[in-house]
Structure formats: structure tokens, C-alpha cells
Amino acid sequence: MMESCEVVLKKGRAASVGRGHPWIFSGAIERLVLPNDTQAEPPVEGDWVRVTDAQGRPIGWGHWGEATIAVRLLERTGRQEGTPTSDWWAGQLQSAIAWRRRWGLISGEQTNCCRLVHGEGDGLSGLIVDWYGGIAVIQTHTLGMHRALPQIVAGLKFALGGELKGIASRSGKLLKSHGDTLGTEMSAEGWIEPPTDDANGVTAVVENGLSYEIDVLLGQKTGFYLDQRDNRDIVRQFAAGRDVLNAFSYTGGFSLAALAGGAKSVVSLDASAPALEICEKNVALNEECDDAKHSVSCGDVLAYVRGCESLPDLVILDPPAYAKSRSARHRAVQGYKRLNLETLKRLPTDALLFTFSCSQVVDAGLFEDTIIAAAIESGRNVRIIKRLGQPTDHPISAFHPEGAYLKGLLLAVD
After folding, report:
1. Which of 94, 124, 148, 362 is the Cys-Cys partner for 159 at CB 3.0 to 4.6 Å?
2. What are phi and psi of 105, to 5 degrees?
């Protein structure tokens, strides 16, 4: 690995990274300066590189990439030589985890699952670590982070101590794209260190006082959608006495919250039959949730909505990301508008609609404009009651607004 290749930025292009943005785009790079070694070659994806401004003043160290984002800055330092050490990794992870401890999310009686590391929000671009009551699940989104797994694992052990029972890797998307460049050991997905009591991937957690079974090896993402914790609690506050449709329900997070909040009835709607089976198990785990008030429906959400003459008076729309890139943004916006328009047209008077987007390329302003356009076309009187977003364990760097990927609205519909 090239430890001391230097990336020199163009004149005037260091301003954004100087303000704290962690990404350096390929167009901002003036040249690469290789080590003074006749065998030296340009860096390959995942290598550490040292970044300087046009005058040669050091900015920091980061992982080299081979896409539009050429460097992800991780350490801002004036050091001239030597990549960040194991102590640096341990310190970064300990700092991120200390914040979650302050918020009572790691081992609390009401909640013992959370995000431990949230990429750029914790200064670790390309790394996600989720926590499920003793199990740490790592997702690496860059080769640099994936190659740092030994240091990440060691840092987690240092920061979590005896609370850590097992470690899993869920980096399938990255591995599928780069499997040919990684060794057999680095290409594995699954347990890095399995728990001693049970290695089938299913573990029990509690969130806002409600119990869930999470499959950290086979479930979506790392097993659960931890980013909706606060919004699930808001649904709980508004659900009393209402009939609820939880669309894109997955394993029932919003459904359990609504039942615990006193909903008259809840329908969990999803295209995945296995997810709905887990949803029903999760309902049964909780005394606060009356099985008799809950039912499931397997199928396409838009087709289901269009097949209803009238919908329940509380609907939750939490679809998967409609756009993964800017090129797909227009199509995504049209998808959000169509889904929300069809829903708004069928809601009864005095209904509530929780509607979300987790597409990073659709920012909060564009999403809200799209929902307003749907409201205008529906002919309904619609009021915005709350603007919704990410919980505290999914922090957004003030210098990286792109990190605000989850946005939502609570609407009152007359």
C-alpha cells in the first residue's frame, strides 16, 4: 500500500475541505506526487494518501477512491509521514461510542440498539456500525474502510469492552463490486467473531420499551431500520383510537409503535412475506400489542392503495430509496408524488399521513415541494404538523449537509 503518495489540490480548491467537508472530488486535484522510489506506482482504490493544498501545506490523510469522490478525508493533521495508527482508530471509535452512551442508547432498559458509527457524521466516511444489544454489525462502503477491518474490530473491542458479545460484517454490496480485488478472507460476509451462545444471527433487542427479534446476518441493511426510532415514537403518540396502515412495513417497527400507542387496528403491508412473518412474531413478543388488532397484507403498496376506496385514518409511507444517484432523481420525485397523491386522494377527513424519503439525492426541500405538489393535485386541505428526520445516533456533520438523507413529514388531511 502506498503510504505517502501526495494528492495536491488545485489553487483555490481547498476551501471546502478547509471548512470541514470530507470529500475531495476528482476535478479538484492538480496532480499526484509519488514517493521518491523508482518502484513507486500511483495509488489504488483504498490506499491511504496525504492531501496538501496548491502551496504544499498539509491538509490531512484520507482513503483514495477511483470514482467521482477521489479522496475521503479522515484525519486532518500536519503530519508529513505515517498513516493513522491503531491508536487513532481506537480513539475515533471510542469518541463516537461515548456520545451514544451519553444518550443512553447502548445498554438502557428502554433502548439497547442504535447506530454506533454514522459515516461522515462521526468523521469516518465510508463506515457504518450498528449495535444490537451486544452485537456490533459493520458495514463498509469503501475499500479503504474494508481493508481497515482489523483496526476497526480492535477499536470496537477497546471502546465496548465486556459489553461486546459478537461482531458481524454486512458489506455485501461492496464485496460484490470488488470481490476480485480482495483475498478470500476479506471477501467474507457474516460473522467476524460470533457470539458464544448463539450464532444463527437472530438476537433480541428493545427500542422505546418494545421488543424485537433482529436477524443481523440476513435482515435488510444490518437487520433493522434504526434511523426511524424517534419517528416510531411519534407515531405511537398519535395512534390512539385510529386505524393504521403501515405501508412498506418490513418487520413492523411502526406497527408495534402504533399498537402500543392504542391504535384500533393496524395493517402491516409489505412485498416480503418473510418480513411479515417476522413482523407477526414481533407483535406477539409484546404485551402492549394486541394480536387481534393486527393483520398483515403481502403485496405492492401502490396497487394496494389504488384498490382501496378509502384508507385508514393514519397511514405511514416509508418506502425504500427511490433514487441512488442524481441521474435517477427525477424518476424518484415522480414516484414519491404518485404514491403520495394516490394516498391523499383516499384518506378520510381528519386523517394523518406520515410520509418519508430516504433518498440522499432528494433533499428535504425537494421532497417537501413534491409532497406539496401532490397535495395541490389531490384537492385536499393539507397541513404540515411536523418535519421529521434522523435521530441523534445518525448525526449530520454541519460541513457535510449530504448526510441529511432521511426526511419526513407528518401531515393532517381534511
Report:
1. 94
2. -100, -10
